[in-house]
Design goal:
Layout (H helix, E strand, L loop, with lengths): L5 E3 L2 E3 L3 E3 L8 H4 L10 E6 L12 E4 L2 E4 L8 H12 L6 E5 L4 H11 L5 E7 L3 E2 L5 E2 L4 H14 L4 E4 L7 H10 L4 E4 L3 E3 L16 E4 L4 H11 L7 E3 L6 H10 L3 E4 L2 H4 L3 H16 L10 H6 L8
Parallel strand pairs: 3-16, 4-7, 7-8, 8-11, 11-12, 12-15, 15-16
Antiparallel strand pairs: 1-2, 5-6, 6-14, 9-10, 13-14
Length: 313
């Protein structure tokens, strides 16, 4: 019996572990280290209608138990992603989750319509943390109505299920999750990075050229767990959890909180073999914990122990 086999909308996964978008590129570099067929799925780097060169450097900075990045969605553009990167990835028997981004709703529609036609793309990950240029730069993912609107627009043109990637930079994450659900989302991925910054002690200058960036790594794991714990009890959507995962034990925690699968991000930079290592250790850990299948772990914490003492209305 495969203790790790997982089914989600559009995704049949031999295991529920995948690299997170933005931390794996399009898999080319990692393919020289291990067989990508070992992965449950691959979340590819975000695609936008036109090529993007990203933000000025420096755009990465280390922080205690994490890192800041302000890459700026650097990517070769929709046409090259489809004709080159997805074509190259088609040699692997692994479902692809295509991350899509944009600066206006029309961008999302354009990318979703075309990229969802690719044979190996089995789901879309809707990155709504991008700034909406028509709304003064406010991120799509911080306004429930806007999030619902862009989700609905993408659903209308996509040929595959749509997972909405939630930003943690909001007052009420459950409200955003419900907005995505109301817009027709098939699932959620959470959490994206937390907005942060680092300053140079000698110059008082922000270390990142962009001044602020997204915080990821173990530092945000407690936040991710809390948000998944809350959201999974309020919406009827599967969650792909992410945020500081670096071990098989972390994966179990995310499942306990309510996740149905996980994505590993920053840990790929410190240990490029982290995904296959976690996949190898999970069945052993499940047996030690007395579980026949990983699905038995999902929501175990709140099912057994109820809501947290502190809960946002």
């Amino acid at each position: 019996m495969n203790k790790l086999y997982t089914e989600l909308p559009g995704l049949e996964l031999k295991n529920p572990v995948m690299p997170a978008s933005g931390c794996f590129g399009f898999g080319r570099e990692f393919s020289g280290l291990y067989d990508l067929n070992e992965l449950g799925a691959i979340m590819i780097k975000a695609a936008t209608p036109e090529p993007r060169f990203g933000n000025d450097t420096p755009r990465v900075a280390e922080t205690p138990s994490g890192m800041l990045n302000a890459i700026g969605l650097q990517n070769p553009g929709l046409e090259k992603v489809i004709n080159e990167e997805l074509k190259w990835l088609s040699r692997f028997d692994v479902p692809i989750v295509a991350n899509i981004a944009g600066s206006q709703i029309e961008d999302y529609i354009t990318v979703a319509r075309e990229i969802s036609k690719s044979q190996n793309v089995k789901a879309l990950e809707l990155n709504i943390s991008c700034p909406n240029v028509r709304e003064g730069g406010i991120a799509f993912g911080t306004n429930p109505e806007v999030a619902k609107t862009v989700t609905k627009a993408v659903k209308e043109v996509s040929e595959v299920p749509v997972y909405v990637k939630l930003s943690p930079n909001v007052t009420n994450i459950t409200e955003m999750a419900k907005a995505a659900e109301d817009g027709g989302a098939d699932g959620l991925t959470m959490i994206n990075t937390l907005l942060g910054m680092r300053l140079d002690v000698k110059t008082a200058k922000p270390v990142l050229a962009n001044k602020t960036g997204g915080l990821s790594g173990p530092a945000i794991k407690p936040v991710a767990l809390r948000m998944i714990y809350e959201v999974s009890q309020q919406v009827n959507l599967p969650i792909i959890g992410m945020g500081g995962i670096s071990s098989a034990e972390d994966v179990i925690e995310f499942f306990y909180a309510g996740a149905s699968a996980v994505a590993v991000g920053t840990a790929n930079f410190t240990d490029p073999f982290i995904c296959p290592e976690i996949i190898k250790k999970l069945p052993v850990l499940l047996e030690e914990l007395g579980f026949d299948h990983i699905s038995e772990c999902r929501g175990r914490s709140w099912k057994r122990h109820g809501k947290p003492a502190y809960h946002r209305a």
